[in-house]
């Protein structure tokens, strides 16, 4: 009834469901892409809850619901314990959730006064609820969100405080080195060519491959190179889980000979180089056949070093703000906004492609920007009153202050502009990139990071200048997302993306890959479910941002600021009821 983890098998579509159960030595691949997202732990406290009990105070419980992407159905995720007789509970039981920057995870916290042992919530008194997103909690100062509880008309229902803490084991990596002595000789004409294969055990007793060392040729006393592996990949954060290590002799044809194996655990390995970390390599078949069999050699741990990776959330928690700017293509190739065939068509009943892309990306990023004020620019239009062409104009008509309040404010300014400017041309990207780069160049201390979203129908006129701007911007704390709308060929955009060939200008290469391009048409849901289209689009365009962000911080040697001190609930003096 009170389980907090998602039941196994309820993986959400598109999320990696852990690693394959078993892999043979031959098909080993790098596993980092299969490791799940960061896990965060949510702690819940309430202040001044409604009192529903006549002779004592309420006995509150918190129930968390999540919403599946693309439909509005709320599913129960878990429950806290019940705390008797208090209006100011600090719940001990936590909610542990996967965190994906690029996804909008809607949450609902419901509060009840528990009156019996029944697990059926309708048998208990409802105390109110709070809605938010996981991004809102993580993006709040110190990853601590305080919000009013609502849901009972005419009543003040108190406040809820939710704090997010990234789970440490997600981020520790270990650097280990092993050597071996007197391994069995397996090759007819020479010594063995040994390598190690590491497996972590699963809950059901099966094993999953998690690392393979290089092969050391022609020796029975190999020293392997040190290797780095995340604690999650090695033991899923469980320090006592069995780790099985197999020793093989490499053969060119892939039929590697088994030398032997041993088992250990993260806790044993963490003792470092010592007599505890010299392992006998045992071949069970040989042991069963030969009475005098001792072992097939020994493997020794030479070094064990724990490294904690700093994460995107460390910077967000330390106060780094993500500044979001949007730039919209107002060139004539989009078509007349009054015609239904136009990409800028102002349909009173549904968003056009520009509106969908803007809302999909903006609604996620806005959680990480505390003032929710976003500069919104347009390019490629003739402006009133004199009809001059501009490639960098404020959608709200105020060049001194192009900021709009929230994504709704940006949408409003976009629709207003469509009524006042004349779509024209050419399609120049460089001015809006340079606009954001000027701001990014003034804050290089890691306190701010800039994301520019360009939405365009794709036929770019200033390719050389845009490449130059991107190469210059790659040294700055900024990323560029380009969403292509409409049916055009987007070959030029693919070139700017730089995933295949790193972008260059006049012989200079970009320091980092900072551009992510996607064509909107790839995300249109055939069933007409725009919510799903927008969720998929946001997932793909935002997935690279945390790594681009970290690559800037790493290259510059910028460490996260310390998070504000953890919240300690005030001690409430119990008041006697009159």
Automatic annotation (TrEMBL):
GO MF annotations, alphabetized: calcium-dependent phospholipid binding; metal ion binding
Cellular component (GO) terms are:
plasma membrane
- UniProt cross-references to PROSITE patterns, sorted A to Z: C2, VWFA
Does the record's keyword annotation contain Nucleotidyltransferase? no
Occurrences of domain C2 (ranges): 20-147, 156-279
Keywords carried by this UniProt record: Calcium, Metal-binding, Phosphoprotein, Repeat
| Pfam families linked to this entry | C2, Copine
Q: Which GO biological process entries does UniProt record here?
A: cellular response to calcium ion
Instruction: Please give the SMART domains that the UniProt record associates with this protein.
Output: C2 (SM00239), VWA (SM00327)
Keyword presence, Phosphoprotein = yes
Domain VWFA residue range list: 323-524
Family membership noted in the UniProt record: Belongs to the copine family.
Please describe what this protein does. Answer: Probable calcium-dependent phospholipid-binding protein that may play a role in calcium-mediated intracellular processes.
Per its record, how is this protein called by name?
Copine-8
Q: Which organism is it from?
A: Leptocoma aspasia
Name of the encoding gene: Cpne8
């Amino acid at each position: 009834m009170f389980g907090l983890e998602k039941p196994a098998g309820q993986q959400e579509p598109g999320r990696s469901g852990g690693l394959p159960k078993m892999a043979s030595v031959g098909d080993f691949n790098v596993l980092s892409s299969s490791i799940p997202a960061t896990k965060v732990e949510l702690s819940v406290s309430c202040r001044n809850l409604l009192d529903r009990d006549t002779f004592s105070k309420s006995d509150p419980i918190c129930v968390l619901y999540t919403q599946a992407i693309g439909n509005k159905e709320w599913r129960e995720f878990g429950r806290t314990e019940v705390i008797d007789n208090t209006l100011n509970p600090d719940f001990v039981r936590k909610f542990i959730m996967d965190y994906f920057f690029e996804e909008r995870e809607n949450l609902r916290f419901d509060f009840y006064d528990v009156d019996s042992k029944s697990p059926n919530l309708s048998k208990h008194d409802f105390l109110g609820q709070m809605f938010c997103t996981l991004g809102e909690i993580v993006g709040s100062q110190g990853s601590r969100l305080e919000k009013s509880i609502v849901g009972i008309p005419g009543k003040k229902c108190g406040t809820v405080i939710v704090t997010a803490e990234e789970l440490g084991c997600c981020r520790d990596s270990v650097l280990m080195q092993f050597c071996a002595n007197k391994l069995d000789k397996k090759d007819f004409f020479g010594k063995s060519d040994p390598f190690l294969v590491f497996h972590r055990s699963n809950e059901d007793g099966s094993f999953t491959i998690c690392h393979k060392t290089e092969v050391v040729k022609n020796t029975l006393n190999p020293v392997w190179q040190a290797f780095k592996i995340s604690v999650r990949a090695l033991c899923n954060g469980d320090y006592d889980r069995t780790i099985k290590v197999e020793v093989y002799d490499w053969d060119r044809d892939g039929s590697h000979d088994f030398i032997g194996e041993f088992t250990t655990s993260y806790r044993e390995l963490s003792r470092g180089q010592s007599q505890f970390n010299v392992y006998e390599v045992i071949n069970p078949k040989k042991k069963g056949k030969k009475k005098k069999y001792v072992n097939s050699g020994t493997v020794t741990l030479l070094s064990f070093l724990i490294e904690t990776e700093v994460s995107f959330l460390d910077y967000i928690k330390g106060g780094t703000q993500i500044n979001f700017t949007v730039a919209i293509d107002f060139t004539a190739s989009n078509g007349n906004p009054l015609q239904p065939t136009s990409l800028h068509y102002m349909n009173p009943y549904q968003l056009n492609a520009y509106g969908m892309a803007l809302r999909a990306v903006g609604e996620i990023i806005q959680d990480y920007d505390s003032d929710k004020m976003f500069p919104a620019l347009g390019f490629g239009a003739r402006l009133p009153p004199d009809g001059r062409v501009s490639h960098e104009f404020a959608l709200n008509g105020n060049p001194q202050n192009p900021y709009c309040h929230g994504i709704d404010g940006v949408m409003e300014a976009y629709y207003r502009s469509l009524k006042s400017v004349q779509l024209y041309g050419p399609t120049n990207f460089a001015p809006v990139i340079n606009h954001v780069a000027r701001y990014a160049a003034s804050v290089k201390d890691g306190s701010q990071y800039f994301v520019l979203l360009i939405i365009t129908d794709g036929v770019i006129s200033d390719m050389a200048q845009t490449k130059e701007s991107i190469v210059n911007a790659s040294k700055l704390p900024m990323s560029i997302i380009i969403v292509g709308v409409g049916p055009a060929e987007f070959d030029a955009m693919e070139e700017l993306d730089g995933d295949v060939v790193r972008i260059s200008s006049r012989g200079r290469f970009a320091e980092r890959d900072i551009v992510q391009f996607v064509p909107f048409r790839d995300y249109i849901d055939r069933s007409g479910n725009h919510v799903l289209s927008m969720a998929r689009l946001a997932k793909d365009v935002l997935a690279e941002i945390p790594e681009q962000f970290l690559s800037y911080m790493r290259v510059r040697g910028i460490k996260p600021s310390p998070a504000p001190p953890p919240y300690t609930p005030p001690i409430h003096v119990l008041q006697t009821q009159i």
